[in-house]
Design a protein that fits this description.
Length: 493
């Protein structure tokens, strides 16, 4: 795998996923080194002139009016120590790596004034897989200040790090990786923590996961169309073009491709329930929400969002609110609602498949009938999971209090908006597993059905993991096996 070369622009969701999860290495273009050097010189000249610069020679937050002099490096260490208030379970390794890359990408855009030594140390730690132990609770979205302090402390040899599968003192981890801890120049500490890198990095992974789950939902939906004998004229491109809502035509085309064959089966009914008939609209709305989340994330990944911001070409240092991320939060709140809509339709299709014999299917998809429970007990499990998804779809970006003596009187809750969206994706994939199981069973029970090549591959992949139901058995075990394969992306050959 070729290294990702940071240039100050163009870092994508896929780049973040490759570095965070696949160990892709990171390199830096020479133009970035020149940009950082120029910004650092501007910052140093401004500081030497006596200009008040937030976080360099002033306090932070409500301490803005406090002048700071003396040992600049010690003050930057103090900033890191004083803001290390994160608590809770440690973030998973992929999110921490995504955070490190996000901060490096933001640095590459210029504007931070970060010293070259600290920037290189961040890249080296990422490439050596030395990761800070980063608690999950503490950011309200006005930059991820409290969480990011753990990264700054690790680079200076303080705090804890994960290295080679072990948790240890950061100084030991750096030494084992043959890396040196860094000394902080003026503003370096603030530059390391004043960023929405946790939000942007974890957001990139959530978008990647949403895209994967969307593809799986399309596959499950197509197999349901086959198994329930749905009227496939709903996918006619002329119908979709008549209402060109964002994503709808793309979703319909994806379903048509999965169902493509020489001769479409005769439908079992004129019109199907809305969860089936309106699949392109529901899935299309989700596609639109994923695209909006991608755009919001990639803006943050490639933005100069420090406060204060160093304008290298203009030789100025100005205060800014660029670290504030309401658009990012709103994009993930919207994505969460779109996922909940899609999950609700998935659950509705499962109930249609597993109830009282729609379109000639046996009751509960049981081939034995009588007192057999078949698939119907899973309706309760699916309802419980859907309730959890709907609960997490409630917005959080309005839930904040004024802090820091009223200086920080607005927040976005971006990390929480992103993390609950990630939780919803995981729960949604459980519902997709249920739909795939029921749709595959319906296919097996429908005599004389010849599947399209696309849906035949989906059916075979389900059957490689879950046997047909011939008598009542513990279907929860089967659902877990299929869900695990969906989660790792290994379920289709």
């Amino acid at each position: 795998m070729n290294a990702l070369i940071l240039t100050g622009a163009g870092v994508s969701v896929e780049d973040v996923a490759a570095v965070a999860r696949d160990g892709r290495k990171v390199e830096v273009a020479s133009i970035v080194i020149d940009r950082l050097d120029r910004a650092r010189k501007v910052l140093d000249r401004a500081a030497a002139s006596g200009q008040p610069i937030y976080g360099l020679n002033t306090g932070l937050g409500a301490n803005l009016g406090v002048s700071v002099s003396g040992d600049a490096s010690a003050f930057q260490r103090q900033l890191l120590e004083g803001r290390s208030g994160a608590v809770g379970d440690a973030l998973p390794q992929d999110i921490v790596r995504a955070t490190m890359l996000a901060r490096a990408a933001m640095f590459s855009a210029g504007g931070s004034g970060i010293s070259l030594e600290v920037f290189v140390a961040l890249i080296d730690a990422l490439n050596a897989s030395v990761h800070p132990v980063m608690p999950s609770l503490g950011s309200i979205g006005d930059s991820d200040l409290v969480l990011m302090a753990t990264l700054g402390r690790m680079l200076t040899g303080d705090g804890e790090a994960d290295f080679q599968g072990r948790r240890m003192p950061a100084a030991k981890a750096l030494a084992m990786a043959r890396l040196a801890s860094v000394s902080l120049a003026p503003k370096d500490g603030l530059s390391l923590i004043s960023a929405s890198a946790v939000s942007a990095g974890s957001g990139a992974l959530a978008v990647a996961d949403a895209l994967s789950a969307f593809a799986q939902q399309q596959q499950a939906g197509a197999l349901t169309i086959e198994g329930i004998g749905a009227n496939q004229t709903i996918l006619d491109p002329r119908l979709q073009a008549a209402r060109p809502a964002a994503g709808q035509q793309q979703a319909a085309k994806g379903l048509r491709d999965l169902l493509a064959r020489d001769e479409t089966p005769a439908p079992a009914t004129l019109q199907d329930p809305l969860s089936i008939r309106c699949m392109p609209s529901i899935h299309g709305a989700l596609l639109q929400a994923i695209d909006q989340a991608r755009q919001a994330v990639e803006i943050e990944l490639n933005a100069a969002a420090d406060n204060p911001l160093v304008l290298g070409h203009d030789a100025m240092v100005l205060s800014t609110g660029n670290f504030h991320t309401p658009s990012l939060s709103l994009a993930f709140e919207t994505l969460g609602l779109a996922i909940a809509q899609c999950a609700a339709a998935c659950a509705a299709r499962f109930i249609q498949l597993t109830s009282s014999g729609r379109n000639g299917l046996p009751k509960y998809l049981s081939p034995v009938g009588g007192a057999s429970a078949g698939f119907v007990p899973l309706q309760k499990t699916m309802t419980a999971i859907l309730a959890a998804i709907r609960h997490k779809a409630n917005p959080v970006m309005l839930d904040f209090l004024p802090v820091s003596e009223g200086v920080e009187d607005h927040a976005t809750q971006a990390p929480l908006a992103v993390s609950k969206c990630g939780d919803m994706i995981v729960l949604w994939q459980r519902l997709i597993a249920f739909e795939l199981m029921a749709a595959a069973q319906a296919v097996d029970l429908r005599d004389g059905l010849t599947l399209a090549p696309g849906t035949a591959g989906i059916h075979a992949a389900v059957r490689a993991l879950v046997a047909p139901l011939k008598e009542d058995r513990a279907l929860g075990i089967d659902a877990e096996a299929l869900y695990a394969a969906l989660g790792t992306g290994t379920w289709l050959p």
